[in-house]
Design a protein that fits this description.
With about 600 residues, the chain is of the alpha+beta class. It is built from 21 helices and 15 strands. Among the domains are: about 60 residues, Arc Repressor Mutant, subunit A (Orthogonal Bundle); about 50 residues; about 220 residues, Transposase Inhibitor Protein From Tn5, Chain A, domain 1, CATH 3.90.350. A hairpin with a 5-residue loop joins strand 4 and strand 5.
Length: about 600
């Protein structure tokens, strides 16, 4: 320390040499550059600027050399004109015990628009506490949301009346639902129920969401006042989202398997599930929230791994309807799922499935050996390793054979193939390299079908690609990716509903001329999404469909020819007709 300089002098000098605030630092740096004449590079290093940023600072000061340049700006508005203008009225009306919503409404009538949130902030700043919650009868008579009745089968009324429903197409499923008899199905699966909503009624309500393509359970609130939905399920009103969301929480995987088994018992002998061959696949249902229970799986639509629920699906190759699902899967269990499906099918139908077609990642090579030992025919893909790709490239042109597929609508009908026998975990399998099947890289097939021709094998695997179309239809129409929960068991029940709903759509499509192979979203758009006028009488329920361009297809289906007795309507008959617009009173 220099002699004769006290400590306070040293600290005051540091005020100029070591500025603390940004504006002070700018002032001292510019002073050193413009007044003292120090080089810009030296000043920038002394005051902690990069050379480029200091040149920019000098540029801005040259454009505005005013003392206000060194004043800190005032951030944001310093006054709130709306709140200030309404403050006295807000305080006055709160002293009269008006709520924030009433004050906001009164301010709007006075031409002072202030939201309830802004009113609450004014009151809080003035020291007012929140009002105690008031009963409904104490509130002003303002328009508010109506409270719909509680769903209760005991309140189901049959007084003669007429109403219009937006969900008229749902009644087209009733003949098939009656034939399949959902009441025993719900009983066999031991589904939960109550005095207000029995198990069969709850199942019909959950199934209606899938049949009517409602994305999330909360979206049913827009239709909960529709009398047609309540009539479809046999309830006075349709259950609200609270019941629908809670219902699957009481269903475990064992009950879901019983539901699927009962469903197969009901459709036994119908064209819905021939059971000759099955397409198997996994699908990852993505989840965009944060939850520790979910694992990372590859989501093909995003081309990345992310938290998701892994779902196993089996599709009947003959009817293109899903026949089995399981969302109760964890990592490491994927390769055993094909054998769980085989056990399920064997218990349900008395014999294992005859033929399976799936991709390479569905099971391991040891699993393929087990399938061969069980006598189950299969076709699968083999992964394209660098060794196999090198072997394919080195094959001479004379080794390849060309086959023509009997699929007139297919673009790639003349693939080339090469066949050989390979040993996989102790069993001999046929391996086929296939070119010109629609992919840039060759397809490598593995099968234990030793007597089938190459043409038949390639044609069958090409048909397997249809499951991708079915998955796309399930994602887009049945909202398969609209994850109902981060708990796999709740998703498991939703997937079982998808199996039943897709089967009902296939049954309905079989009745409609020209729609046997149509996807569910096209059937819904053309044939089901139409309003209807419902007339309830003492003996029957008449559903009159409004005029649409596709109505002749419905008339030709045979559903309009004979009334159907509905068990959950106390055996009253359903009669489907076309709406004439005549003003008639309900029959009594």
């Amino acid at each position: 320390m220099p002699i004769g300089q006290p400590k306070d002098i040293i600290s005051l000098r540091r005020f100029f040499t070591e500025p603390a605030s940004p504006k002070h630092r700018q002032y001292e740096a510019l002073r050193a550059y413009f007044l003292d004449g120090r080089p810009a590079k030296e000043v920038a290093a002394a005051f902690g600027y990069s050379p480029g940023s200091f040149h920019v600072l000098c540029h801005h000061f040259r454009r505005d050399p005013h003392p206000a340049f060194f004043l800190s700006p005032r951030h944001g508005p310093q006054s709130q004109p709306r709140k200030s203008a309404a403050r006295d009225l807000v305080v006055q009306w709160r002293k009269q015990n008006h709520s924030v919503y009433e004050i906001s409404h009164q301010l709007k009538e006075q031409g002072l628009s202030l939201s309830p949130t802004a009113v609450r902030e004014v009151l809080k700043a003035e020291g007012f506490a929140a009002l105690p919650r008031r009963a409904d009868e104490e509130r002003p008579n303002y328009p508010r949301a109506t409270a719909e009745a509680v769903a209760d089968v005991r309140q189901f009324q049959w007084q003669p009346r007429r109403f219009t429903t937006a969900c008229g197409g749902l009644f087209l499923f009733l003949p098939d639902l009656v034939g399949l008899d959902l009441d025993p199905l719900a009983a066999q699966a031991h589904l939960p129920g109550s005095k207000l909503i029995p198990a069969a009624h709850a199942l019909r309500a959950c199934l209606a969401l899938k049949l009517w393509s409602i994305e999330r359970k909360s979206h049913v609130m827009a239709l909960v006042a529709d009398e047609g939905l309540g009539l479809f399920t046999g309830l006075n009103v349709f259950p609200k989202k609270s019941f629908l969301s809670e219902y699957s929480s009481r269903i475990d995987h064992a009950k879901t398997l019983k539901l699927l088994a009962a469903w197969h018992a009901q459709i036994s002998g119908q064209s819905l599930g021939p059971g000759e061959s099955f397409n198997l696949d996994f699908h990852s249902v993505p989840y965009y929230g944060q939850h520790p229970l979910l694992e990372q799986h590859f989501v093909s639509m995003r081309s990345r791994r992310q938290p998701s629920v892994l779902v196993f699906l089996a599709q009947d190759a003959g009817s293109h309807a899903f026949c089995y699902s399981n969302a109760d899967l964890r990592k490491g269990e994927e390769s055993e799922e094909v054998f769980r499906f085989i056990d399920f099918w064997t218990r349900t139908h008395g014999a294992p499935p005859r033929h399976l077609v799936f991709d390479s990642k569905l099971t391991t090579h040891a699993g393929l050996a087990r399938l061969d030992a069980m006598g189950i025919d299969f076709i699968t893909l083999r992964r394209r390793s660098p060794k196999l790709l090198k072997e394919i490239v080195l094959l001479p042109r004379s080794a390849w054979r060309t086959v023509e597929l009997d699929v007139p609508t297919r673009q790639y009908r003349t693939p080339r193939y090469y066949e050989q026998s390979v040993a996989v975990v102790g069993c001999q399998l046929r391996q086929m390299y296939v070119h010109d099947l629609g992919h840039e890289d060759p397809t490598i097939l593995l099968t234990n079908q030793r007597q089938a021709t190459a043409k038949r094998l390639i044609t069958r695997y090409a048909q397997r690609m249809l499951i991708e179309n079915s998955l796309s239809d399930a994602v887009r129409f049945f909202h398969m990716d609209a994850l109902s929960s981060a708990v796999g068991l709740k998703v498991d029940f939703d997937m079982a509903l998808l199996v039943v709903a897709s089967g009902l759509y296939r049954l309905l499509a079989g009745r409609m001329r020209g729609y046997a192979d149509a996807q569910a979203r096209q059937i819904f758009r053309d044939l089901l999404e139409l309003p209807a006028t419902v007339t309830i009488s003492e003996k029957e329920v008449e559903v009159s469909f409004h005029r649409r361009s596709h109505l002749p297809i419905l008339l030709a289906s045979g559903l309009f020819d004979q009334p159907v007795a509905i068990p959950w309507w106390n055996q009253r008959h359903l009669r489907l007709t076309t709406y004439t617009g005549a003003a008639q009173s309900p029959k009594s």
